[in-house]
Amino acid sequence: MTDFSGLVDGYRRFKANGWTQQRERWSKLATGQNPQLMVIACSDSRVDPTIIFDTSPGEIFMVRNVANMVPPFETSPGHHGVSAALEFAVTQLEVPEIVVLGHQSCGGCAAALTRRFEGAPVGQGGFIDDWMSLLDDARDRVIEEHGQGEAAVRALEWEAVKVSIANLRTFPCVPVREKAGKLRIHGAYFAVADGILHLLDEATGQFAPA
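Structure tokens predicted for Carbonic anhydrase (210 residues):
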């Protein structure tokens, strides 16, 4: 497994090879960025959007967090990291497309389904419990239909994508751009075991292989 010294070794390989081969690109990126996509993905180490989508530096503006969640729009005091990133991508970079990317075997969704950290103090799961409460309503619907087995886990992972998309649209800057045809939102799901990407059809609510 890679440790910090492995990262430094990797950097040296990158500097000698990847950076040198794309030196012109890096020179242009040093003056600014103009990504055409924002991807909201999970922090999970197995799900790297730049690898899944085979992209180059500067092509994706990315936010990663537990279970690829977008909280609803709110103006309460606090540090709103996802909201700030979304606001920057949409109003400053003016990205024309946003992708919410869920994935198989999501630990955050599993925690939401089992309520593993319910009542845990901060520092021992309390932050996770609070964050995953974003899926409480979806969890109840999933359990009512699927119980708590494997089918429920997959269903909640799909629901996490849908909930995040719904929450995206609570931000005033999003629906106005969608209505004007300046912004499109996509849902996707990556199956780690077989490498298949599934895309969400919002009209039907179903995911199907790309």
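The longest helix spans residues 150-168.
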